[in-house]
What does this fold into?
Amino acid sequence: MQRHFRAKSGGFTLLELLIVLSIIGIAAAFLLPRLSSSDGARVQAEVRELVSVLNYARRMALIQGQETLVRLYPPVADTAEANSADSRRNQPGQWFSRGVEISAKGAKQARGNEPFEVHFYPGGGSNGGDYELKHGSLSVQVQIDALTGKLKATLDDEKKT
It folds into this structure.
């Protein structure tokens, strides 16, 4: 009795292809939301930093009994200017955007690299203002109350504070 075995061809079966495609689909379902949320993380980090700089300036105006000024710088395109902005980033009273666009509603629009100025007064008030931080499709509103100087940050899409 002689048996002949037929050599298996080198291709993949339909079942093997379906299993591999389903694994890729499941992996993509987990990874894609995380990749797109990187914009959200960037905007959240910028908003947290901006709010902390503004709150610090407000507290200093109350504690020291004198006006405090915060300058809000828009993002810069020039690499040398960006490096210069990074070196000044830790100075009190200044906030430098790292790629998140900033605009002011109802205020004079900053031209080029001119900063927006926010003043906090010893009595707790400020010059107020509504600012919008935007990156991609995400937008956050930062409102500064003129009477109290208190801050409120709201995500445009979900209206969260």
